[in-house]
């Protein structure tokens, strides 16, 4: 309840204000505290006059000068391997064992193959919508590999590789995109809006940035549990323009939550380039403004992403602090199947990232340099992974659609009469008066 100020308290407040203005450091300073009583302030320790404002700690200056907007600019991009896959600084080499590096590569390429098949499938009218992850595979796998399996993930929509790295099977990815009877969401979500409780991956929701304050709330709960878990929250640089991003960053900093804000800065928010999205030095530059430890990494270098996420995770748990990672990358595909990016960017620009600085080819260069991979292995893995994707795809196409009657059975204990009526009419509309029950999932 707000304090009710009476006349005497107002007088005290005025006196206290005057006392605070006293310049003699030997004088006792008083200030008013909530509730109206007076409290003795700490003595000044130096003869110098220091600002006493509760909202900022700094020195007085006697020269009028605005802070330049570029005071934090040119934040460097941390990398471990160069474009030819060579380790730049041996002390930063995470020295991951061969099997783990091969797993990174297999996940990154499997994701790429799944994207190609599902993208084509949408073009052929088999599914309604799709979003590819081309060029961002390093940000997914590098970060996912640095987490504990029980860390809670909040994604935006372009982080399928994180779920894949946690072991989500191809047939469930496909089932979700087809909205068939095996889709845990029963086709109630748009394609690519995956979710998996067992793998601690919160279901994707389309409204941009809503996951950010939700993730912070979860991180606060995790902190109170004392369970040594963290929350990771992925978002695009476009989503960082939403008010929810501000709310999330500020809550995380003030409530000291163990969360990693992982921004995929891929250059575009649909057709809006970053040059129209912000005037500061990207997203990493915002971190210090909120009191958040921040770093910018090369998102096409899977090892740099891995190292940064690993260290951020370690410190988030140890210190109960939020961390911000801005992974610089490039969205090679169109925003989604509803977009044609040739209308707003050049083919040369896209080709540069596809051919000269792709996270998959960079990792392959590293593996070849190590003597862990060759042309033969590449060919055989590509064939094998494509076969696996095609099998899952064909299975998803064959699967029946969820029966309308079962659509809300996990929502209502007792079915609402008008939903029931709607479901019956949907079944009749789709399958006629005497529909053969065998066509549906039972
Ligand atoms: C609140 C809200 N506004 C607008 C949209 C439409 N929209 C969907 S994705 C997108 C661009 C997001 O860009 P970014 O965050 O950079 O992610 P990226 O697609 O580049 O991975 C927009 C504007 C939305 N989904 N929600
Ligand atoms: Mg973007």
TrEMBL record:
It catalyses: N(6)-[(R)-lipoyl]-L-lysyl-[protein] + 3-methyl-2-oxobutanoate + H(+) = N(6)-[(R)-S(8)-2-methylpropanoyldihydrolipoyl]-L-lysyl-[protein] + CO2. Residues 105-404 form the Dehydrogenase E1 component domain. Its EC number is 1.2.4.4. CDD domains: TPP_E1_PDC_ADC_BCADC. Its cofactor is thiamine diphosphate. Keywords: Oxidoreductase, Thiamine pyrophosphate, Transit peptide. Gene3D superfamilies: 3.40.50.970. Belongs to the BCKDHA family. Heterotetramer of 2 alpha/BCKDHA and 2 beta chains/BCKDHB that forms the branched-chain alpha-keto acid decarboxylase (E1) component of the BCKD complex. The branched-chain alpha-ketoacid dehydrogenase is a large complex composed of three major building blocks E1, E2 and E3. It is organized around E2, a 24-meric cubic core composed of DBT, to which are associated 6 to 12 copies of E1, and approximately 6 copies of the dehydrogenase E3, a DLD dimer. Interacts with PPM1K. PANTHER family: 2-OXOISOVALERATE DEHYDROGENASE SUBUNIT ALPHA, MITOCHONDRIAL. The branched-chain alpha-keto dehydrogenase complex catalyzes the overall conversion of alpha-keto acids to acyl-CoA and CO(2). It contains multiple copies of three enzymatic components: branched-chain alpha-keto acid decarboxylase (E1), lipoamide acyltransferase (E2) and lipoamide dehydrogenase (E3). This is 2-oxoisovalerate dehydrogenase subunit alpha. It comes from Gekko japonicus.
């Amino acid at each position: 309840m707000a304090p009710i100020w009476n006349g005497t308290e107002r007088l005290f407040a005025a006196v206290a204000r005057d006392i605070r203005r006293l310049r003699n450091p030997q004088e006792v300073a008083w200030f008013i505290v909530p509730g109206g009583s007076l409290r003795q302030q700490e003595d000044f320790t130096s003869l110098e006059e220091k600002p006493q404002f509760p909202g900022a700690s700094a020195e007085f200056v006697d020269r009028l000068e605005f802070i330049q907007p570029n005071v934090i600019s040119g934040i460097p991009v941390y990398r471990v391997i160069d474009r030819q896959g060579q380790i730049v600084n041996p002390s930063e080499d995470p020295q991951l064992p061969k099997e783990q590096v091969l797993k990174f590569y297999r996940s990154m390429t499997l994701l790429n193959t799944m994207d190609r098949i599902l993208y084509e499938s949408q073009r052929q009218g088999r599914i309604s919508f799709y979003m590819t992850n081309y060029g961002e595979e390093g940000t997914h796998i590098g970060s996912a590999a640095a987490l504990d399996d029980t860390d809670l993930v909040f994604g935006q929509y372009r982080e399928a590789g994180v779920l894949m790295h946690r072991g989500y099977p191809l047939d469930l990815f496909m089932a979700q995109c087809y909205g068939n009877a095996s889709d845990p969401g029963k086709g109630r979500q748009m394609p690519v809006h995956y979710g998996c409780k067992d793998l601690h991956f919160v279901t994707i929701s389309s409204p941009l940035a809503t996951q950010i304050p939700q993730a912070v709330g979860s991180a606060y709960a995790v902190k109170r549990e004392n369970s040594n878990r963290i929350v990771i929250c992925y978002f695009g640089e476009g989503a960082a323009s939403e008010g929810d991003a501000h709310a999330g960053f500020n809550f995380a900093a003030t409530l000291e939550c163990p969360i990693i804000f992982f921004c995929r800065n891929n250059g575009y928010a649909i057709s809006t380039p970053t040059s129209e999205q912000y005037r500061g030095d990207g997203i990493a530059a915002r971190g210090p403004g909120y009191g958040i430890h921040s770093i910018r990494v090369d998102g096409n270098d899977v090892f740099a992403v891995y190292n940064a996420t690993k260290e951020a995770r370690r410190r988030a748990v140890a210190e109960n602090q939020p961390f911000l990672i801005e992974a610089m990358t490039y969205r090679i595909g169109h925003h989604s199947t509803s977009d044609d990016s040739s209308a707003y960017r050049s083919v040369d620009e896209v080709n540069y990232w596809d051919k000269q600085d792709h996270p998959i080819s960079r990792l392959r260069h590293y593996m070849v340099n190590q003597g862990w991979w060759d042309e033969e292995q590449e060919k055989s893995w590509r064939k094998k992974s494509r076969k696996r994707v095609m099998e899952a795809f064909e299975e998803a196409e064959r699967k029946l659609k969820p029966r309308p009657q079962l659509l809300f059975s996990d929502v209502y204990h007792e079915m609402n009469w008008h939903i029931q009526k709607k479901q019956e009419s949907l079944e009749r509309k789709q399958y006629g008066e005497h529909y053969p029950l065998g066509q549906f999932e039972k």
